[in-house]
Each structure stands twice: as structure tokens, then as C-alpha cells.
Amino acid sequence: MPVRIAVIGAGVYGTHVLNVLSAAARSGEADLVAVADIAPPTLERAVQRFRIRGYADYREMLERENLDAVAVVTPDYLHRQVVLDAAAHRIHILCQKPIATRTEEGCEMIAAARDAGVLLAVDFHKRYDPAHRELKRSIRQGRLGRILYGDVYMEDRIEVPAVWFKSWADRSSPAWF
Ligand SMILES: NC(=O)c1ccc[n+]([C@@H]2O[C@H](COP(=O)([O-])OP(=O)(O)OC[C@H]3O[C@@H](n4cnc5c(N)ncnc54)[C@H](O)[C@@H]3O)[C@@H](O)[C@H]2O)c1
Q: How far is the centre of ligand 1, averaged over its atoms, from the C-alpha of 160 (Å)?
């Protein structure tokens, strides 16, 4: 049985998640049923593009859709309540990184999922980055010889907080990023 799944937050990254789940739905791996977003134009765009039901209030979606899982793609500082509500409905959760912007909130979310007996996975999407996977494969296959020392870092352009996350960057931080 394909997993009945919905997405909460259809902004920049929510659209990527919807794309992936829509492809999974086409191949029969998932049943992408709905999307929730508080911004009417964003919601309307996602509903039209992915031909799924839309909700302005994600809590109504959790009540009505009999979901197996949700993908939480709201801004960093808004993951907590959505995750707690999904856990209360006994729905499995894929939450974007960072899980939360306060350690206590992250612990509360993990405890809620554990108590409800649902999976709470954090989507560290760089783990699936093709370049990173290729590097891991090369090391495993010994194509780079014996690794003696490693030093990895990632930089980002200023446009990420200044443009992409402009409306909420001040409520997260580069450390969480
Ligand atoms: N943009 C990226 O490249 C990227 C990559 C990986 C992870 N992420 C993570 O994904 C999350 C979302 O980032 P984004 O870039 O899509 O942000 P965004 O601001 O583009 O989108 C967030 C969306 O959430 C909606 N939203 C806010 N509160 C809501 C609520 N209560 N119910 C339903 N919808 C709500 C907003 O209306 C908005 O459409 C963040 O945690 C971010 O760190 C983003």
C-alpha cells in the first residue's frame, strides 16, 4: 500500500518536496493527497500544479485526510507545533532540518514522536546530494586511496538569508543552517 502523505509548507523547499513526492506517486511508491499553506497564493499555486487538495489550516488536513505521513516544510522556527500536532494524530513525520531552533523544542518533539510511536526523521538533504554520494562511493571503493585526513566545509551565498529566507532569517541562524 503506498504511503498516504501530505506536505505542510509549500514555499521554496516545499515545492521541491512536492515534486519528489509527486514523482513517487507516479511510480506508485506514495499517495500524495494534500498540501497545506497559510499563504493563499502559495497554496493555490501548489494545488493547481500538483492537482491535490489544499488546506489553509494544516490541523484541518490532519483531521480529515487519514494520513500515514507528513512532510513538514515550514520555516525553521515553526517546525515544533506542526510536528507536535502530527505526532498527536499518530502520523509519521519527515521534518526539514534543523529540527527546531531551540534544543528544548527539539527534545520535546522527539519525545512526542516517541510517545506516539511514530517515526520522526529529519531531512538532512545533503546526505542525498549526488556529489556527496559519489564522494562516499569513491572512498568506499578505494578510488581515492587510503584517506589520512579529511576537512569538509560548506559555504553559502548571502542571497540565502537575504533573499530566500528573508521573511524569517532573523528567527533562525547560520548555525542552524
Ligand atoms: N530553501 C532551501 O533550499 C532549503 C533547503 C533545505 C531545507 N530547507 C528548510 O525547509 C524549510 C522551509 O524553507 P523554505 O525555503 O521553503 O521557506 P519558505 O519561506 O519559502 O516557505 C515556508 C512556507 O511555509 C508556510 N507556512 C508558514 N507557517 C505555516 C503554517 N502554520 N502552516 C502551513 N504553512 C505554513 C509559508 O507560508 C511558506 O509558504 C526550512 O526549515 C528550511 O530551513 C530549505
A: 13
Ligand 1, atom 37: nearest CA belongs to which residue? 39
How many CB atoms neighbour CB 172 within 10 A?
A: 16
Q: 33 and 93, same structural domain?
A: yes
Residues 27 and 90 in one domain: yes
Grid coordinates representing 95?
Answer: 521534518
Please classify residue 93 by burial: count the beta carbons closer than 10 Å to its beta carbon, then call 0-12 exposed, 13-18 middle and 19+ buried.
buried
> pLDDT tens digits, residue range 120-160?
999 998 888 999 999 999 999 999 999 999 888 888 889 98
Residue 1 burial (C-beta neighbours within 10 Å; 0-12, 13-18, 19+): exposed
Question: Per the confidence metrics, is the pTM higher than 0.85?
Answer: yes
Ligand 1 neighbours by CB, cut-off 6 Å: 8-14, 36-39, 42, 58, 73-76, 78, 96-97, 125, 164
Residues 119 and 140 reside in one and the same domain: no
Taking only the tens place, the pLDDT of each residue in 19-39 is 999 999 999 999 999 999 999
Same structural domain for residues 140 and 102?
A: no
* Domain containing residue 107: 3-125
Q: Which of 8, 12, 170 maximizes ligand 1 atoms within 8 Å of its Cβ, making it the mutation to test the pocket?
A: 12
Can you give the CATH number for the domain in which 91 is found? Answer: 3.40.50.720
